[in-house]
Every structure is written in C-alpha cells, then in structure tokens.
Task: structure prediction
Amino acid sequence: METKKSKVTKIDFQKEWAGAKGTVYYFLIEFANGDKGQFSANKKDQTKFKVEAEEEYTLEIKINGEYKNTIINKPVQEGKGGFQKNFSPKGNESFALAYAKDVMIATWGANRSPDAPKAFTSDQMFAIADKMFTWLESKKK
Result:
C-alpha cells in the first residue's frame, strides 16, 4: 500500500459497532485530493485525523461481493506500536526469550487445576532464555 498525504476536508461520524473487545466508531473521511473512505477509532471523539490538517494515510479497497469499501488508515510508524508487516526479530535474544515464554506457558497446561501453583516461574523462563541465547550465539562461530 502506498502512503499518501493530503489535507482532510471533511470527517463525518457514520456508525458505531459494539464488539467483543469494545465499541468501534466508524467515520467517513474526505481529502482535498479527492480521496474518500472510511476509518475506525476506539473513541467517538477520535483524534486519528483532524479536519484542515495535512495527514499521511494509506488507502485500501476491500470488495465483498457487490459491497466495496475504501479503508483509510494511518501508516504504521516504527516504534509506535501496532501491527508491522515487516517486523523481524532483532537477534537471538528475541528468539530465545519468545521460545522460553512458550515453554513457560506450555508448562502451565490447559488441564491444570486453577488452584494449582504455576509449574514454571518468570525467573525460570529468563534462565532458560539466557541458556538458549548462549547456545544460539555459540553456533554462529
């Protein structure tokens, strides 16, 4: 998706939808360059886009049967959170910690009694992550 930039000329509240993770508010938006579409926010008094402001955005067209919808989104900025398609771990430390976390969760087990103590602590998880990291780094040579 290409990132565009244009002045916002109009934002109109469209509807709200109550989902399992909370209410989502939908807005119609128009830009000075003629682009129009819809965006969502988690607040009715959204601050994602502002009328009269020059805004960066991406435009995505979704088609479902005869229904066509143009979705407007803010581009993901590095270090700002959100889903990043080009994310890749920075090194073995990231892999080791992620794998150790998986081991910790697996030891808790889905069939354990809620009253049972956790079988694996975060201190143990970090100890395993350190061992995995050391082993992975030793294999680089």
